[in-house]
Amino acid sequence: MTETGESGGRKYDPAATHNFPDERLNAILPDLLSDPEITTYLEAQNVNAVTRKGYNDHGTKHVEIVRNRALNLYDLLKGGDVGFNGAIDQDLDEADEPVIIALAATLHDIGHVVHRDEHVYYSIPLAADLLDRLLPEFGFYDASEAVRMKAEVLHAILCHHTEEDPLTTEAGVIRVADALDMERGRSRIPYEKGGRGINTLSSQAIESVSLRPGDGSPVLVEIEMVNAAGVYQVDNLLKAKLDGSGLENHIRIVAVNTKAEDRLVERIEL
C-alpha cells in the first residue's frame, strides 16, 4: 500500500505482495471507478448531505477514502490471519472477498440521493439495481454467483451504520472504514459555512490517520490530534463503529494529542 491524496487516504496497490489473490479485484476496479452511472451517483449524493443538510462530504472523496481504507484493512487483517466468512459462507471464492468490500464501500452512501436521514435503507434498493447490471458485466459471475455476491455487498452496505450488526468480516471492514474518514478538512464545507457542531469541530482536530500492522494485533490505527476536541471523533464515532463490528479484537486504536499547549487529553487507546 502507498499513501496518497491530501486527506491521507490510501490507494490500493496491485503491485504489492499479498498472500491472497487480488487479480479479480484489479480487473474489476477500473470499470467500477469509471462507470458513468456510479460516478454520477457519487456526485449527486452530496447534494442532500452537504448542500441541503450541511453535513461533511459524503460524495466522491469520502467514498474514495472509505474504499481505500477498507482495502487496506482487508490487507492487514488477511496478513494477520483473520478469517473472512462472507464469500466463503456463500460458496464464493477467496478472490471475491476484496470485490465485495470494494463494491460495498463504493455504494454504501448512495441512499443520500433520496435523503440524508435513514440513508442506509435507501442505499439498499439503489445499490441492488446497480449490482444487477454490474456483476454480469464484470464477466466473472454466473447468475447464481451474482445473486450471492449481491447478497454479501448489500449486507455490508446495510451494516455500515450502527443500527445493524455485521454478520461477516467483510461487513465489519466497511463499518470501521467508514469511521476512519475523519481527518481535518473532511468537515471543511460546513465549517466554512459557519457550522460549529461537535462533529465539525472535532474533525477539525484530527490531523492524520494511518494504518499499519500492529504489535499484538493485526491492525494498528494511529490518530494524530491537534486538540482535545478530537476525542469526540475517536471515542464517540470511531469506537461506536468498532464496537459490534466483529473486529474489536483485531484492531488497536491509539490517538495522541500532539499540540504541546493543549494537554487536556494527551492519549486515548482503544
Overview of this structure, please?
There is one protein chain. This protein is of the alpha+beta class and 270 residues long. The chain has one domain. The protein is 51% helix and 10% strand. It contains eleven helices and six strands. The strands form two sheets. Strands 3-4-5-6 form a four-stranded mixed beta sheet. Helix 7 (143-158) packs across helix 8, helix 8 (169-179) packs antiparallel against helix 11 and helix 10 (198-204) packs across helix 11 (230-242). The protein is globular, with a radius of gyration of 18 Å. The two termini are 24 Å apart. The model is unreliable at 1-10 (pLDDT under 50).
Overview features:
270 residues; alpha+beta; 4-stranded mixed sheet; two-stranded antiparallel sheet; 11 helices; disordered N terminus
Layout: helices, strands, pairs:
Elements: E1 2-3, E2 10-11, H1 23-34, H2 36-52, H3 60-79, H4 86-89, H5 96-107, H6 119-138, H7 143-158, H8 169-179, H9 188-192, H10 198-204, E3 206-212, E4 219-225, H11 230-242, E5 251-257, E6 267-269
Parallel strand pairs: 4-5
Antiparallel strand pairs: 1-2, 3-4, 5-6
Helix pairs in contact: 1-5, 3-5, 3-8, 5-7, 5-8, 6-7, 7-8, 8-11, 10-11
